[in-house]
Automatic annotation (TrEMBL):
<dbReference type="Pfam" id="PF13439">
    <property type="entry name" value="Glyco_transf_4"/>
</dbReference>
<dbReference type="InterPro" id="IPR028098">
    <property type="entry name" value="Glyco_trans_4-like_N"/>
</dbReference>
<dbReference type="InterPro" id="IPR050194">
    <property type="entry name" value="Glycosyltransferase_grp1"/>
</dbReference>
<feature type="domain" description="Glycosyltransferase subfamily 4-like N-terminal">
    <location>
        <begin position="20"/>
        <end position="185"/>
    </location>
</feature>
<protein>
    <submittedName>
        <fullName>Glycosyltransferase involved in cell wall biosynthesis</fullName>
    </submittedName>
</protein>
<dbReference type="Pfam" id="PF13692">
    <property type="entry name" value="Glyco_trans_1_4"/>
</dbReference>
Amino acid sequence: MDVSGLRVALFSGNYNYVRDGANQALNRFVGYLLRQGAAVRVYSPTTDTPAFEPAGDLVSTPSFPVPGRKEYRVPHRMSAQVRRDLKAFQPNLIHLSSPDPLNHRALSWARDHGLPAVASVHTRFETYPRYYGLAFLEPLIESMLRRFYRRCDAIVAPSDSMAQLLREQRMSYDVGIWTRGIDRDIFNPGRRSLEWRQSVGIEDDAPVIGFIGRLVMEKGLDVFSDAIDQLAARQVRHQVLIVGEGPAREWFQNRLPNAVFTGFQGGPDLGRAVASMDMLFNPSVTETFGNVTLEAMACGLPTVAARATGSESLVTEGVTGRLIRPGAIGDFADALQHYCDDGAARARAGEAARMRAERNGWDQVNQALVDTYLRVIRQRAQGMVLRSSPVP
């Protein structure tokens, strides 16, 4: 079989109703599959106000809003309509992209029908409770994730560091890599615009510390704010540029009243905003890859990031940026001050980052996932059921 013989049923908790790095990667991948002649059917919650048009055919699934985070929805069951649609579509592989109730049901459906199942890991769900005062739940969530992923034929992670963590957590015996690509037409140093910086109130020669992403507490907004406070106390010249939207925006603006908040930026506008920064500050420990880090690197920016999964696979300590122990406010401030004060060091690290980002083209990284698909289908056909995948 080649890619044109694939019939993929993809299950997602958020395919297009709220924009994030994970679902943009999934949509790009579906587009790639369709261009290669594969058939794809996507099952996910939908809303009347999606963030963007979906790639491929999207089937709506029953869901309810997440308490306290109503912009997100939980797909809680596989309806009779979805089951009929699946049966008519006749997939030969199930792709699971979120360990929610619907994906659990889809995994059971795959097992009942003798189909291979591949799961992609997009975020570290087990770390989320710590941002809401519920850190004691982390071991329980990790155990639940292990039960889910071990029933899959294979799982894929977006970075080497995340893949290694999944192995250490005993999530699966078959952990592959599906990394992320970069659109170099959008993200490149040529997008930098002093005119745009001036239009949002940024001085031409001020070192700009940037944040890119959804404004939610699990992105490390508290750590970001505390480190910026230290720079101000040290009287380090800088300006802060925040690109993104989310429920924590009001908290973040109150915390950093002197920062420039642009709201959501997309496409060429996002490329311009990123390239117009001077460094990226990414203190989050929840990412499995860090799309924004790669985008910043492609624009020639050094990154100061938490030493965590994802960032460790992109940022080379002391070469393309700095990797700091998570939550070490003073060390984050030291690294940011270094790049604010030393323009030459900033330029060297930014050029090294740009060269590193050249490795990530979308077609190459998406073909790696296709290769995983074809391998697990072949193994199933040959009766090679992995230890991580109990016989149905």
